[in-house]
Design brief:
Protein name: Low molecular weight phosphotyrosine protein phosphatase
Shape: globular
Catalytic activity: a phosphate monoester + H2O = an alcohol + phosphate; O-phospho-L-tyrosyl-[protein] + H2O = L-tyrosyl-[protein] + phosphate
Keywords: Cytoplasm, Hydrolase, Protein phosphatase
Organism: Sipha flava
Helix content: 25-40%
Oligomer: single chain
Low-confidence stretches: none
Number of helices: 5
Distance between the termini: 17 Å
Structural class: alpha/beta
Largest sheet: 4 strands, parallel
Strand content: 5-15%
Mean pLDDT: 96
Strand order of the largest sheet: 2-1-3-4
Subcellular location: Cytoplasm
Length: 155
C-alpha cells in the first residue's frame, strides 16, 4: 500500500454490500481525482463465500452505473486491523463483530460506513434475500453518498 491511505469495507459474506462499497469507493476516488492516494479492499466476517465472485445483482447494479469491477470474496483477518487505516462495517451487527475481532493496539479506525451518509441513512441493509435488484440499488446509492462524503472529509 506504500504511502497510500487504506480502507477495508466489511459485511457478512463479502458478496453483496462490501464489494459494492469497494467498487463505489474506487469510482468515487477516481471521480474526485484522488484514486492515487487511496487503496481499497473488502472482506467478510464469515468465510462462507471465500473465492466466490460478487452476487450477480451486485454486478448488475455496478454495470448499470458504469462501474467495471472484478473481485473474489475473502474473509477478514486479524492482520487487516493493522494493514488498513479505516475499516467500515455496513450495519450494527458488522460493527459488533469488528469490535470483537479487533486486536488490542491495532491501528485501524472502525467506522459505520453509513455514518457518512449526508441523508442520514446510516444502516446499509443486506439485500441478499431480496428477489430483485431494488435493495442492491439502494445499497449502491447509500455507498456512493457515504464514500463521497468520507472522501470529502479525508482529503
Amino acid at each position: 500500500m506504500g504511502d497510500k491511505r487504506s480502507v477495508m469495507f466489511v459485511c457478512l459474506g463479502n458478496i453483496c454490500r462490501s464489494p459494492m462499497a469497494e467498487a463505489v469507493f474506487k469510482e468515487a476516488a477516481k471521480l474526485k481525482g484522488v484514486n492515487d492516494k487511496w487503496y481499497a479492499e473488502s472482506a467478510g466476517t464469515g468465510g462462507w463465500h471465500v473465492g466466490c465472485s460478487p452476487d450477480d445483482r451486485t454486478m448488475t447494479v455496478l454495470r448499470n452505473n458504469g462501474i467495471q469491477f472484478k473481485h473474489s470474496a475473502q474473509q477478514l483477518t486479524k492482520e487487516d486491523f493493522n494493514r488498513f487505516d479505516f475499516i467500515f462495517g455496513m450495519d450494527q451487527s458488522n460493527m459488533r463483530d469488528l469490535n470483537r475481532m479487533k486486536p488490542k493496539g491495532s491501528k485501524a479506525k472502525l467506522l459505520l460506513l453509513g455514518s457518512f451518509d449526508p441523508l442520514g441513512d446510516s444502516i446499509i441493509q443486506d439485500p441478499y434475500y431480496d428477489s430483485d435488484t431494488k435493495g442492491f440499488e439502494k445499497c449502491y446509492q447509500q455507498c456512493m453518498r457515504s464514500c463521497t462524503s468520507f472522501l470529502e472529509k479525508h482529503q
